[in-house]
Amino acid sequence: MKTETTIQGLTASLASARSSKKMIGFVPTMGNLHEGHLTLVRAAKKICDVVVVSIFVNPIQFGVGEDFDSYPRTLEQDSRLLAEVGCDIIFAPSVEQMYGTQPRLTNISVGQITDDLCGKSRPGHFDGVAVVVTKLFNIVQPDYAFFGQKDYQQLAVIRQLVQDLNIPLEVIGVPIVRAEDGLALSSRNGYLTPEQRAIAPKIYQLLKQAEQQLRQGEMLEQVLANISTELTQAGFVVDYVEARQTNLQPIAQFDQDLVLFVAAKLGSTRLIDNLQINFKT
Amino acid sequence: MKTETTIQGLTASLASARSSKKMIGFVPTMGNLHEGHLTLVRAAKKICDVVVVSIFVNPIQFGVGEDFDSYPRTLEQDSRLLAEVGCDIIFAPSVEQMYGTQPRLTNISVGQITDDLCGKSRPGHFDGVAVVVTKLFNIVQPDYAFFGQKDYQQLAVIRQLVQDLNIPLEVIGVPIVRAEDGLALSSRNGYLTPEQRAIAPKIYQLLKQAEQQLRQGEMLEQVLANISTELTQAGFVVDYVEARQTNLQPIAQFDQDLVLFVAAKLGSTRLIDNLQINFKT
């Protein structure tokens, strides 16, 4: 496994793979890797010859007052984990390597599907994601790119971006990896105190409970309101509890496939989760 | 020479060139080709093995009330001209082929350098250019892309876009081609009546005159005002007469290299031109 910190180095490392037409898989991350990330790498290994994992805490997707400075940087540990799952190349550029010394004037906005859910409470976040992902795609030029379904809205934004801009690669969404108690794995879980960590699985429990209630015919609005109430009672500050079609459009009819979304804070730690519910099968 | 009208067809046509590592050159156009475009193709032929010319009148870079519907479509004549200069592949997609049937949600904005000059009177124009050029770059995946310096601001926008998004290609700017009387070649020149066509070279004459005046030490503001006055007297409706640094930043000091920009209408036809003036050599 190689680690490259410059675009030039990465390009050189990938040159022979590219010229011998090996399938290149790409897993963009912000590091502080957990089993969720490693599952993405394993999925990439299955269908690609060469797997590149980027580790880059992207400043422009953090808002004012968000956790850019404190976001955990654990490159040594990440490298060990990535070597174990067969990652071929780590791309760990500096902010200057990614954004240069000249001001960036170009912005990319994916409209409509970023207007609500996380887009509402994190203005500019998805623009920052769209820009860095486009840059990384252009640098790595992979055949496949792998993203976790935990960041469901992000995955939808990237699929839209790739479609709208004809970016020549295939986006693969990989299911959420959860702790045994159901908590969706996230680097931000590390911020939780032991007490908060004990409460955190409540989100998934309520999502599963909501699924049952919906299957039993309870009204969506009431089910969503229940989640919100119970989260608040458990000590969360709820950002949103919403339901959407799988393409993030508003629910148009009863009994169509949908996704439930939750974002809620425990102390200063913001957790998100989602659950897709298929009615048609 | 092949003509491809679908992305899939173009990709197939380019596959062998790409796998045998031939240099691919790309000249994006809106068709109705003149000697300016053909000069771009010749420049591409000089350094590339395979030259792709796209002909696509891009709806999203035209504003309300602009000439999208009436913009001349002359594919047969264009094909003949392109065959003569050695173009290898024409890519002439439909609007549906380029934009699909689903709504596009992604926008690309290059800020600051699009705030004035043509950006001011054509709101959204450069966003439309940035989107279509990014799409075309992703479809063609060229090593080199060629743009005329007549659309100087557009060239600057594309250079910025390529730099900011790490698009893996080199942008080549090609000098303006002029008629014998100095008029910068443009597809829109075809809109001019014989009377207007006789007046149109005035723009370049005034730019050359301004260069002389500046070299003789006349004040920039006065020189620009003269151009504007004389154009108005000749029957133009002036949109702007401006000077910028070569990177489109405002002039910061006396005697630095600069570019003079003119946009002016004759009847309903909008003409643009520019002249770079180097003081340092």
From TrEMBL, chains A, B:
Annotated catalysed reactions: (R)-pantoate + beta-alanine + ATP = (R)-pantothenate + AMP + diphosphate + H(+)
Positions with a binding annotation for ATP: 30-37, 148-151, 177, 185-188
Keywords: ATP-binding, Cytoplasm, Ligase, Nucleotide-binding, Pantothenate biosynthesis
EC numbers on record: 6.3.2.1
Annotated (R)-pantoate binding sites: Q61, Q154
InterPro entries documented for this protein: Cyt_trans-like, Pantoate_ligase, Pantoate_ligase_C, Rossmann-like_a/b/a_fold
GO cellular component: cytosol
Example GO BP: pantothenate biosynthetic process
UniProt miscellaneous comment: The reaction proceeds by a bi uni uni bi ping pong mechanism.
Subunit structure: Homodimer.
NCBIfam families: cyt_tran_rel (TIGR00125), panC (TIGR00018)
Function of the molecule: Catalyzes the condensation of pantoate with beta-alanine in an ATP-dependent reaction via a pantoyl-adenylate intermediate.
Similarity field: Belongs to the pantothenate synthetase family.
Name under which the protein is recorded: Pantothenate synthetase
Source organism (scientific name): Acinetobacter suaedae
Gene that specifies this protein: panC
